[in-house]
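Human:
Class, as today's exercise, you are to examine the entry below, and be ready to discuss the fold:
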Amino acid sequence: MTTTHTLETPEADIVYDVHGPAPAESPRPPLLMIGQPMTAEGFGSLASHFADRTVVTYDPRGLGRSVRKDGREDHVPAVQAEDVHAVIRALGAGAVELFGSSGGAVTALALVTAHPGDVRTLVAHEPPLIGSLPDAAAAGRAGQAIRDAYQAKGFGAGMAEFMVMTSWQGEFTDAYFALPPADPAQFGLPVEDDGRRDDPLLTDRTLGVTTYRLDAEALAAAPTRIVVAVGEESREVFTGRAGVGTAELLGQEATEFPSHHGGFLGGEFGYAGQPEAFAKKLREVLEG
């Protein structure tokens, strides 16, 4: 059973879904699954493997069903953390368990920093924090090339550059920057420019996420158990390396999960991972 709720605030209407038993009837605390820029629909396969407990998914403000009313377009982890905090309060079940992936992992880290009593255990899956990398400046340059391609030629060109960047193994060296411009057709992407320039992944709206500065001291002082996760297939690419770097900043080793950056996905976006194996590993980690 799934129920959908809207949390109305002056700045945005935050839409979230409660799957499975009500929090009061769940054998464990609610399990929140959050992404960024991915919305709730991306967690369908993963949530189906936790039907025995309350699972909560949501659309970040300005994405999917969560409509902004503040006139802004940026995505700031500290702001999104306050939205998640409000959802947790609305659940009325006390501290939760939280699985955050990609930008959702960054939001989750910001949440624990601001509201350490909200989360019992956080599994932060491949937070794309450029500052955690030894080649941070080069990674920033690679990211700027994606935004430049998008602004110059549209979605296909920008997404092709994004796919090249996120599949590059190891540090961004001179060999990476010597590559020719990515060809959208080689990735099955549209070559024509549709004229839009509002993609949250390919614009500077993402900079608040990727340039977020981790407060390692505050996270260490929090009662939350934090586990940084990386995919066994993505450990050497940007998101996996950023996960490893984040774990090191927190004084731990990254915990390996099955598959890749989207390892929990089923057929939601044509980028399937191993959702059953991923869910099994997540359950093991959450249960300690």
